[in-house]
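WARN retry 2 of 3 for item q-0093 after timeout on previous attempt; input resubmitted unchanged.
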Amino acid sequence: MKLQHISLFLAGLLFAGCSELEQVPESTASKNAVFSSEKGLELYANSFYDNLPTANDIIRSDEMADFAARTQVPDFIRDGAYGPRQSTGWSWTALRNINYFIANTTNPAIPLDVRRHYIGLARFFRAWFYFDKVKRFGNVPWINKAMDVTDKDLFKGRDSRTMVMDSVLADLNYATQNIRTTSDNSRTLITKSVAQGFKSRVCLFEGTFRKYQTSYKLEATAEKWLTEAVAAADAVMKDGGFSLNEAGGTDKSYRQLFINKTPVTNEIMLSAVVDPALSVFNDANWWWTSATYGARVSLTRTFVNTYLNLDGTPFTANPAYKTMTFTEEVKGRDKRLMQTIRTPGYTRVNGGTVEPGPPVFSYTYTGYMPIKWSLDDTYYDGGTRNDNSISTMRYAEILLNYAEAKAELGTFTDADWVKTIGALRKRAGITGGLTAKPTVADPYLQANYFPGISDPSLLEIRRERGIELSLEGFRFPDLIRWKRGELMQQVWNGFYVPALDKPMDLNEDGKNDVVFYKVKPATQLAGVTYINVAETVNGVPNPQRLSNDTSGELTWLSNIPRKWDEKYYLYPIPENDRLLNPEIGQNPGW
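OK item q-0093 returned
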């Protein structure tokens, strides 16, 4: 936010740089004033940071995921509700700013290593820009120059995925080799390690996409990308100086990463920070607690079932797991569960008073109410007030990228397991299975998530990735690259309700919290929320039901069909952009 003052300056610069004006006002900086000094390059390069996601972008980024029950089914996966007219994202303004900088950073009066550093930053952000475009649209035009309005390439068609992604990799290689910044305590700058970390993210995505999305016929090139992912992650692990946060013990160390006012610097590599002095906040509490403002995202039971027991065994190995009540099923589990959703023992501060904080059914549809990003004081609930920093990249992701890429290559060892998955699980309080990779595939994961995967290690890595990175924006892209979009059809299920009209105490504080009914009783208990699970309400199908009618798992919006279609692996090109340039065509099925 401290960089916003340069936006008008740069707008004037770009205008002056691509127009043929006879006179330039004295208040307008010339191109030479910027590109003739290191300070000018630094000032310009700071504008690239506007391309990073904001804090609010990040906290909302998993609202479309297989594990996320929400107020409405996303239009994107509803037949006939989304198409080229609704599509967005085909914007290239940011790219011109980057390319203009690269083309003009040529002044020999500035030392070569300085110019290469700033060009490295620009090429990092160009790679960031293009990775987002390729994930969303597939083939896109590769543009590496600052075009003006007469350039014929403004109306060129799309280039091949291989050409664009090879160019992205070349940009990232240049960035990792030339960015000079190696440390940044603010965790807001692009350092050499952040560039390596992002390279591992990009290469893992592309390698697995090519392996599993076989219709592109790029499987033979997947190994190259996975090898690059391993090397980039390994560079961070060896030279980055990062470690998993363990301060606060297994009960607190994970969640601290998401609610701390300043980034937890041993693990957070890049962060969207707040600045109360400039009135820069985020709205995490408003989004994650409001009955009306946000999407009311809650985790599903199918996903919550994947959290292991503390001894390292699968929770679903217990034959009774399907009928365990909420308070029973959350005991003795991976301690990231209690740091991700409200469980017994969770409390909130209300006007200075500490109060129990059970799941609130004015918000949650499944009973699994997230707390990962929200603060525990109700003061923050009513608007854009949050002052916690929001992680954009952290070391745990790098460990997961390394583990998955090696498993996909068939080179994953027990030693790799110990320093990646074993380390993450140890931080979560898990005591068993930390020293050697598994030898038996978990049937629950195979049946409910990955029927085509038989490698026990790869199954567990995918389990770990889902849990560790939940609600951080990785899930939908992961489903795309694994070609598991069908998981978006999963039932939005919640905790088990043993009977109608039976009050439930969800946090074991001796006070009942919720009752599920078909016929509302004439007299209601004070402080208890009553949820109607009848077949219809006022003649309309009820979106909230029990799976066995009078008992069973909560279900939400099971009356609205969700059918995954192959075309959903890419977004459609927006209609207006195709009208401007018919050469870009349209993605299959749209």
